[in-house]
C-alpha cells in the first residue's frame, strides 16, 4: 500500500487495498481498517535484526527496551508526525524515547557501549523512522551511530551479515519469507521460523 493504493480507494477504482496498519494516511484520508477475522495476514511485527557482534548488552538491552515500549499507538503517532507533520525522524525518535521514559538507565542497564554502529533503513519512511529510534537508543548507551539507507532487502541483508550494518529494523514475516522460511499468522511461529 501507499499513495497509489489510497488514491485508488478514494477515486473508487478499488474498494479496498492492503496497507500498513501504521500508515497515518488511513485516518487522515478517512479510511477504515478492516479486521482480519479470517487470519490471512502474516505476523509482520517489527523486529530489530542485529549483526552477531552486537547481540550483547548494552546494544541488545537497548533494542529490547525499545521493542517493549513500541506500541501500535506509539508507532502510528510517530509515523503521523514524520509523514503528515513533516517533523524529522531524529526529532521524533528522541521524543519517543523521552515520552516512554527510556533514558540511559532504562536502555543500557548500567552498561556502556563503545564503537560505531551503522543502522540500516529500507527505502520508505517508517523504516527510516525505526532506524532513527534504534540509533537514538544505541547512542544513549554510548555507541556512535549513523543511519543509512542501502535500499532493498537484497542489499541490506548481506550488508548486515557482512558487518557493514549493525542493526536493521525489519518485519518478521516479510524477512522470514525472504529467507525462504515459512511465516505464519502467529508471531511466535514466525519468530521460530526466522531464527531457524
Structure in words:
- There is one protein chain.
- It is globular and about 55 Å long.
- α3 (59-69) crosses α7, α4 (72-83) packs antiparallel against α5 (89-99) and α9 runs parallel beside α10.
- The longest helix has 16 residues, at 125-140.
- Helices cover 47% and strands 10% of the residues.
- The protein starts with a helix and ends with a helix.
- A 4-stranded mixed beta sheet has the order 1-4-2-3, with helices on both faces.
- The protein is built from 10 helices and 4 strands.
- By secondary structure, it is of the alpha/beta class.
Protein traits:
globular; 4 strands; 10% strand; four-stranded mixed sheet; 10 helices; alpha/beta; single chain; 196 residues
Summarize the structure.
This protein has 196 residues and is of the alpha/beta class. It has helices at residues 3-10, 25-28, 59-69, 72-83, 89-99, 104-108, 125-140, 153-162, 172-178, 187-195; strands spanning 46-50, 116-120, 144-148, 167-171.
How is the secondary structure organized here?
Blueprint: H1 3-10, H2 25-28, E1 46-50, H3 59-69, H4 72-83, H5 89-99, H6 104-108, E2 116-120, H7 125-140, E3 144-148, H8 153-162, E4 167-171, H9 172-178, H10 187-195
Helix pairs in contact: 3-7, 4-5, 5-7, 9-10
Amino acid at each position: 500500500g501507499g499513495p497509489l493504493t489510497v488514491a485508488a480507494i478514494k477515486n473508487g477504482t478499488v474498494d479496498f487495498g492492503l496497507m500498513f496498519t501504521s500508515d497515518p494516511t488511513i485516518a487522515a484520508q478517512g479510511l477504515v481498517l478492516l479486521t482480519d477475522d479470517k487470519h490471512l495476514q502474516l505476523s509482520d511485527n517489527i523486529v530489530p535484526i542485529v549483526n552477531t557482534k552486537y547481540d550483547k548488552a548494552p546494544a541488545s538491552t537497548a533494542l529490547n527496551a525499545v521493542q517493549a515500549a513500541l506500541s501500535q499507538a506509539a508507532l502510528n503517532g510517530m509515523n503521523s508526525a514524520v509523514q503528515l507533520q513533516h517533523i524529522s525522524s531524529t526529532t521524533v525518535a528522541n521524543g519517543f524515547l523521552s515520552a516512554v521514559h527510556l533514558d540511559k538507565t532504562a536502555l543500557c542497564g548500567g552498561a556502556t557501549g563503545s564503537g560505531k554502529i551503522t543502522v540500516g533503513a529500507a527505502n520508505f519512511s517508517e523504516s527510516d523512522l525505526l532506524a532513527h529510534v534504534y540509533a537514538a537508543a544505541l547512542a544513549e548507551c554510548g555507541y556512535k551511530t549513523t543511519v543509512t539507507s542501502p535500499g532493498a532487502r537484497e542489499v541490506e541483508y548481506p550488508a548486515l551479515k557482512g558487518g557493514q550494518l549493525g542493526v536493521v529494523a525489519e518485519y518478521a514475516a516479510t524477512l522470514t519469507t525472504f529467507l525462504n522460511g515459512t511465516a505464519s499468522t502467529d508471531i511466535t511461529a514466525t519468530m521460530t521460523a526466522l531464527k531457524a
